């Protein structure tokens, strides 16, 4: 198995981007309910401001996660469908480990679980710990073959465009 071609900076930027509540909601909404007609985006995600909706749809298009379907509806690309599957797998892992709490919403589970991966180097070097204050999960659970870190690295290896053009700590992470 070859090592990933992305850096620790790439990993952190990808975690920031993929942890965006607006992105999580956009991708899972389309995955669960199908393409969103152009004039229905605001009513589909009413708690997101028009600015955040424009920003996240722009970023999702740039990173090849969504596209305008015939009739201009917003639909998932192949990368977007794999991201939706990634979110589902991360949420299943978090539910199995009752993380961050026994009862959590889907978006919170994904955001908190990806937060466990964030401080780790992408190359899998020893010495980094996945523990944060208050986190009871063992390092090996986060690093298991079906754990969040392995799933993230697989996703980024398969879709390197996700890490392209990302800046550290973008403002959209605070959205929603």
What can be said about this structure in brief?
The chain is mainly alpha-helical and 176 residues long.
Mean pLDDT across every amino acid position? 80
- Measured by DSSP, the beta-strand proportion falls in under 5%
- Sequence stretches where pLDDT stays below 50 over 5 or more residues: 122-136, 168-176
Whole-angstrom Rg: 16 Å
Write the H/E string, N to C: HHHHEEHHHH
CA distance, first residue to last residue: 38 Å
List the quaternary state of the chains: single chain
Level-1 CATH class name: Mainly Alpha
The spatial strand order of the largest sheet comes to 1-2
Helix run count: 8
Q: Please identify, by name, the CATH architecture.
A: Orthogonal Bundle
Biggest sheet overview: 2 strands, antiparallel
Q: Label the structural class.
A: mainly alpha
CATH topology: Arc Repressor Mutant, subunit A
The count of strands amounts to 2
Tally of structural domains: 1
> What characteristic shape results from the CA principal axes?
globular
Into which percent range does the helicity of residues fall? 40-55%
């Amino acid at each position: 198995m070859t090592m990933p071609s992305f850096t620790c900076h790439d990993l952190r930027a990808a975690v920031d981007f993929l942890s965006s509540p607006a992105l999580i909601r956009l991708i899972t909404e389309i995955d669960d309910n199908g393409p969103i007609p152009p004039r229905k985006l605001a009513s589909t995600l009413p708690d997101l401001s028009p600015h955040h909706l424009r920003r996240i749809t722009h970023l999702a298009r740039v990173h090849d996660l969504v596209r305008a379907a015939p009739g201009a509806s917003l639909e998932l690309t192949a990368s977007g469908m794999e991201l939706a599957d990634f979110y589902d797998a991360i949420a299943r892992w978090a539910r199995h480990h009752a993380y961050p709490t026994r009862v959590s919403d889907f978006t919170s589970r994904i955001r908190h679980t990806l937060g466990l991966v964030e401080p780790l180097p992408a190359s899998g070097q020893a010495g980094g710990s996945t523990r944060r204050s208050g986190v009871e999960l063992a390092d090996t659970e986060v690093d298991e073959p079906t754990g969040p870190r392995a799933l993230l690295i697989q996703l980024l290896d398969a879709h390197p465009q996700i890490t392209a053009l990302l800046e550290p700590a973008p403002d959209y992470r605070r959205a929603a």
